[in-house]
Amino acid sequence: MNRPTIQKHPNYIFTLLVCLFSFQSFAQKAASNTEKNSGYLFVYFTGNDKKEEAIHYAISKNGYSFNALNNDEAIISSEKISSTGGVRDPHILRGVDGKTFYMVVTDMVSAKGWDSNRAMVLLKSTDLINWTSSVINIQNRFPNNENLLRVWAPQTIYDSKQKKYMVYWSMKHGKDPDKIYYAYANADFTDLETEPKQLFFSPTNGSCIDGDIIYQNGKYNLFFKTEGNGNGIKKAVSNELTKGYVLQDKYLQQTTDAVEGAGVFKLNNSDDYILMYDVYMKGKYQFTKSKDLETFKVVDNEVSMDFHPRHGTVLPITGSEMERLVAKWYNAKSVFKSAQSTFIKKNNIVVDSVNKKLFLPVSYGTNLKSFDPEFAAFPGVVISPKGKLDFTKGPQKITVSITGQPSVVYEVHAAVNNNPVLTGFYADPEILYANKTKKYYLYPTSDGFTSWSGTYFKTFSSPDLVNWKDEGVILDLVKDVSWGKRNAWAPTITERKINGTYKYFYYFTAAQKIGVAVADNPTGPFKDSGKALIASKPAGIKGGQEIDPDVFTDPKTNKSYLYWGNGYMAVAPLNADMISIDTNAIKIITPNKDFREGTEVFYRNGKYYFLWSEDDTRSENYRVRYGYSDSPTGKITIPNNNLILVKDVDNGIYGTGHNSVIQVPDKDEWYMIYHRFTRPNGITMGRAAGFNREVCIDKLEFNADGSIKKIIPTITGITPITK
What we know:
Blueprint: E1 6-8, E2 14-16, H1 24-28, E3 37-45, E4 56-60, E5 65-68, H2 78-81, E6 87-94, E7 101-107, E8 119-125, E9 131-137, H3 138-141, E10 148-159, E11 164-173, E12 179-184, E13 197-200, E14 207-216, E15 219-227, E16 232-238, E17 246-248, E18 260-266, E19 273-279, E20 284-290, E21 297-298, E22 304-305, E23 310-318, H4 319-329, H5 332-337, E24 350-352, E25 357-362, E26 381-384, E27 396-402, E28 408-416, E29 426-434, E30 439-446, E31 456-462, E32 469-476, H6 477-480, E33 489-498, E34 501-510, E35 513-519, E36 527-528, E37 550-553, E38 560-564, E39 570-573, E40 587-588, E41 595-604, E42 607-614, E43 623-629, E44 643-645, E45 657-663, E46 670-677, E47 693-700
Parallel strand pairs: 5-22, 25-28
Antiparallel strand pairs: 1-2, 2-9, 3-4, 3-23, 4-5, 6-7, 7-8, 8-9, 10-11, 11-12, 12-13, 14-15, 15-16, 16-17, 18-19, 19-20, 20-21, 24-25, 26-27, 27-28, 29-30, 30-31, 31-32, 33-34, 34-35, 35-36, 37-38, 38-39, 39-40, 41-42, 42-43, 43-44, 45-46, 46-47
């Protein structure tokens, strides 16, 4: 890690030493008041682990696409600037002189408890690289704070009347709710020279935290998060900085998920503002846009980041400032990782910095004879050759030169990879061929949310199993389901023709129960039945969860069955209405003690095949086994060598499991759809890999005796099928 050195001064302020001689020229070119802002610096922390509670940097040219600096490692050691060993919630401000920067952070390690900190850290810099710092313990520094429990999320604003920098933050005393206070910093920004005064409290008597003041059109807009009596982001407005704030009692976040850490910044050369916030329960950040700071539109589809931020702020910066940051904390690996072409599957870029190789997986149909990876071009970075290149003749050698660093040459490969088949994180895929539309449809779990906390389902359509169209959300638990609002997992679907009309019955998991929704089309809209279909454990079952439904219609009898269970496999006939089961016919048919979940049933040549997953979806060894039966309700025979899908270490494929199976209509041609850890980064994520998964398709083949051949999970995937 390339970090600045820190020295302790007699007054206990740490001073970051001047970095390297090559950067002195940049310090001399510090931004003047006349140089226009042309980029952005995002300052953030990354998580609740102590090593993640530190100051990180990312940069952007447009305010939407951000790239981490220093390989997303801390740019300052938390151990050296804090009293707890960790810092959170960084806020950065440009001084009125245009070239001095002020940063404040929460001095806290969350592992010690949410009521464990009493301090903040004040930092100051003239170049965004070298910082002086000082710890301010509010409880020790000011009287009447004996019952102070926490000091959170400080920020700074310049008071033009007082001609001083005002620091404001939230504090909680005893059983009182959190309130926002303020105090003025001294001229050196090393201490608070006035006692904290109350700036704002929530009129609803709930907690009031994460304040962010934005001055616009003669008004001070105080954005904050309220808790206790409704949670979310609101704002209060005043004509004066330190008093008179009147609550505008409406929520401003554009999501129903829990949020915190509102941060507002103005786009360069624009009247637009960005309100961003940390959707912390989902491991996401959301960006919204506004001109009036009253109405906000989600712009997430324009935003990209190669990192996962928590509660941070964005500062507009100049070209020379960005060049200075790039020279200090950017490198060739970061440049190559930054490829922005819409044809590239960005989650799956492989950068080998040891052997100086880059692999760019691209979507089906990409013109590799004339292909531009579109590497992010920041000030101080020279890429040669650039633009459209011919990758059909083999890898291209591309040189990256960064000011103050030696040039680096990479061998760049680009090839079509049809796995994963969907863009983004999805898991537990179910597939359907709809006779009504003559198309294939994928119904996955929406993944990428911390601890599987997604609350909606989407579907995707395709004519050929390769080219997929996002058909949007088909069922939102929060809006559409009364009995289960969380954990939207592992759906399944069937098409039935009833009285000459096609109907689609969609079985899904919500809050560890199973429900059913009905639609007239495979893309919905789906209407929930109004109650859980499976809400409790079958008789005799003590462990596991009521999840992972699978629906199968026996081609011999046209009777439909529902299968479900985690830790056990249950089956019951569906009644004619398809939204209820014969509860008297529930049967436990768990194939063996290693059965975990993800039942899939299909019929071929007189045999009923049962597939399932074992181990844990967070394990790299998550895998698929199979058995067969003469009946859709068992008994299941388990053949030798029944492991048919498992990780491929040589190709970096891990966590393969929870599958479905599709037959091409009127052909003995079969495919398996499954999820894996996101590649290549999933294996480095620890248990978080279990909710950062992606959907793949590979061919399913049989031996002459009907046994299933072992499936080799691939990166290339399949080619488009023909009917």
